[in-house]
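Dear colleague,

Thank you for sharing your sequence with our group. We've completed the structure prediction you requested, and as agreed, I am returning the results in plain text so they can be pasted directly into your records. Please verify that the sequence below matches your submission; if there's any discrepancy, let me know and we will rerun it promptly.
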Amino acid sequence: MQIERKIKITYRWWNNDLDEIDSGHILALEETAQDKIYEMLKEGYTSGELLDNVRMHDTDPEDGIEYRGWWEMTYFIEKKD
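Please find the predicted structure tokens below.
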């Protein structure tokens, strides 16, 4: 018999004042999410809040754009004969 575990990590970002996330901000938000999730996983968390302030373009406000997010980990165990 074997046991197989699949781990799924889901995260999402939003800004309630914006209809869409600027495509230029996506890579920065992905990097922040991955760094924060890895840090929190090491501390034993399986979900948590994400926060980031991004200023990538000259057209972004001088104080940046605030994004909020959430992440969660789920896992599945399958027994195989």
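Summary note from our side: The beta strands are 2-14, 47-54, 65-80.

Kind regards,
the structure core
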